[in-house]
Every structure is written in C-alpha cells, then in structure tokens.
C-alpha cells in the first residue's frame, strides 16, 4: 500500500473537505487522467491512484481523473470525463471521475462525513437511452432487444469498501447511481444531480476500494459503463494522539533557485506541484536539503509529516 502524506485539520471537531479546487487544469472542458505516468494525483493531500497506458493506436486509463468538463448531453465513450450534472458539486468547477480499478488513500485511521456523488454523462445517458452495448434501464429487454429476465427492475450501484492500516476490512456502504426496482415508477431514478451520501459507516478506514454492481450483465460481465463522479469528500483524522497545532518548520531560501533547506523535527518530506504530482519523497532528520535546480519555475508545495501531524508550506522556484 502506498504511503501518502495527507492534510489533517488542526481543529479536532472539523472535517476537511476534498473539493479538488486546489487542482489546476489548462482550460475549461479539460481533464487530467494520468497521461504523464505519475500514477496518482493529490487533492488537499489525499492521494487518488490512477493508471495510464499508451499502446500507440489507443490508450487505456483507469482509476481516478480530475475534470472540469461540462458536457452533459453527448453520449458515448468519448465523453467519459463529464459529470451528468454538467459541473462540480455546488456549481464548482472541478470534480473527480472514477472507473475501475484503483485506490483512494486516506491519512491513516479517519472518520468521515458526507461525499457528493453523481453519474458521469457516459454512464447516465447509456442507462437512460440504452446503446449498442448496454440496455435502457426500465426496459425488460437487453441491448440486443431480447428479454433479459429483469422485467425492467434495473439497478446500478457502487460499493465503497473501507480498509484499515492492517488491510483488514472495516465495513462497506452502497451508493445507488440508478434504481428502477420500486413498483412505483415515480421512485425510479438515474442520478443526474449531485447527491450527498454519508460515509460514517467507514469510520476508522485508511483507504477505500470500489466495486460496481448492475442488473445489466452479459457474457463478459457488466454492460453498464462503470463510472461515477465524486466531489466534496469530508474526512477527519481520528487518531486521538493528533496534536492540535501544526508542526513548526522552516523552509529557506524562498524563493529558491538551486538548493532548498528544511529545518524542523524529524519526519517525512514530500514535494508536490500544484496539480498534486509527487516530485520527491524522503526521510527528514532535523535539517534536509532538496535540489530544485532542475524544476520548472513556479509554485510548489512542501509537506512535512511527523507521526500524525502534517503541515504544508508553499515555495517558489525561480
């Protein structure tokens, strides 16, 4: 399991909200899917794993991406990074998109509030209208036009599994993305607006994994596009030994052009860019130096972790 440096609120009764607005994208209607091979990105210091492979004629992405795509009308695989709501939660710009498989890494044992979830446009339109691979939800027939045995009582949900630091299962919770099982058609829905779900059953987890379940299953597995969009994840470090004050540490010179010195208690140092890409992770003993001479000019973040305390400082490379 990857070791992650993660932000921790210094107020014991307050949740930290991961809203992805600390991440930057080059323009409106763009996304980051790990094409640089980083294998992860960090938002508010929570680590979101991903994988990207380029086979020349096509690419394969999985895990988490972050996006500000607004297209909630175009059907198909080519629009896999858009939320069905057309924006982030509470009309924000950025949000995350997930497709199997990868992991979300938390700050050790954590407690949780709510998370906002909605379908992606690709999955939502596929369920609403059907396509050449997947059925129209509520229909008794599959994509091939033949009865599929569901009687139209369709469903699509993701199970979130919480795991502790020993890789033991803490608990799981189900988040329904579509549900046509009720006898009352007024209760049928495909989630097209951001909706809050409570994650407190997973209190004590150190990382999450995800599994999809659908009523539309074919020879090769689930036919429904396996995606969801996520925003505003609330968490709180639950370790009782968590200090209420930040770690004191000095970073100099700042701005820096060659060497950067970190002077503080021992711990672990992580250097990231503003997109959350991890540039360096190293053990730290009182005084450490980092060579920044080869880095592009700009803003970066230095995270210092000491036991369960984490403090972040901005630095400028010039």
Explain this structure to me?
The chain is mainly beta and 318 residues long. The chain folds into two domains: 16-237, Protein of unknown function DUF4465 (Jelly Rolls), CATH 2.60.120.1350; 249-317, Immunoglobulin-like. The chain has one helix and 24 strands. It has one helix at 121-129, and strands at residues 16-18, 31-32, 40-43, 46-54, 59-67, 95-99, 104-112, 114-118, 155-163, 169-179, 189-190, 195-198, 205-214, 217-218, 221-222, 228-231, 233-237, 249-252, 259-264, 267-273, 278-284, 287-291, 298-306, 309-317. It has a 15-stranded antiparallel β-sheet that branches. The chain has a four-stranded antiparallel β-sheet with strand order 21-20-23-24, with no helix packed on it. Strands 18-19-22 form a three-stranded antiparallel β-sheet, with no helix packed on it. The longest helix is centred in the middle third of the chain and has 9 residues, at 121-129. The protein is elongated.
What's the quick description here?
The protein is mainly beta and 318 residues long.
Key descriptive features of the protein:
318 residues, mainly beta, Jelly Rolls, Immunoglobulin-like, 2 domains, 15-stranded antiparallel sheet, 4-stranded antiparallel sheet, 3% helix, elongated
């Amino acid at each position: 399991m990857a070791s992650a440096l993660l932000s921790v609120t210094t107020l014991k009764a307050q949740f930290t909200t991961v809203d992805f607005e600390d991440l930057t994208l080059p323009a409106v209607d763009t996304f980051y899917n790990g094409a640089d091979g980083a294998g992860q990105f960090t938002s508010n210091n929570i680590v979101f794993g991903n994988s990207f492979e380029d086979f020349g004629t096509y690419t394969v992405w999985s895990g988490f991406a972050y996006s500000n795509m607004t297209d909630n009308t175009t059907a198909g695989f080519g629009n896999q990074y858009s939320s069905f709501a057309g924006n982030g939660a509470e009309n924000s710009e950025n949000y995350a998109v997930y497709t199997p498989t990868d992991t979300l890494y938390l700050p050790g044992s954590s407690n949780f509030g709510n998370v906002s979830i909605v379908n992606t446009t690709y999955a939502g339109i596929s369920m609403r209208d059907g396509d050449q691979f997947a059925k129209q939800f509520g229909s008794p027939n599959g994509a091939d036009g033949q009865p599929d045995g569901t009687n139209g009582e369709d469903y699509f949900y993701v199970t979130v599994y919480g795991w502790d630091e020993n890789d033991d299962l803490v608990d799981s919770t189900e988040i329904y993305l579509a549900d046509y099982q009720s006898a009352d058609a007024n209760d049928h829905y495909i989630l097209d607006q951001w909706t809050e779900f409570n994650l407190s059953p997973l209190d004590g987890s150190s990382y999450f994994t995800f599994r999809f379940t659908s009523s539309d299953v074919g020879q090769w597995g689930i036919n429904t596009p396996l995606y969801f969009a996520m925003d505003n994840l609330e968490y709180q470090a639950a370790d009782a030994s968590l200090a209420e004050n930040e770690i004191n540490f000095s970073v100099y010179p700042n701005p820096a052009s060659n060497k950067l010195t970190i002077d503080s208690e021992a711990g672990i140092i992580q250097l990231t860019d503003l997109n959350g890409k991890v540039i360096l992770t190293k053990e730290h003993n009182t005084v450490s130096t980092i060579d920044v001479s080869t880095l592009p000019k700009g803003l970066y973040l230095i995270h210092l972790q000491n036991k369960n305390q984490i403090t972040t400082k901005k630095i400028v490379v010039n």
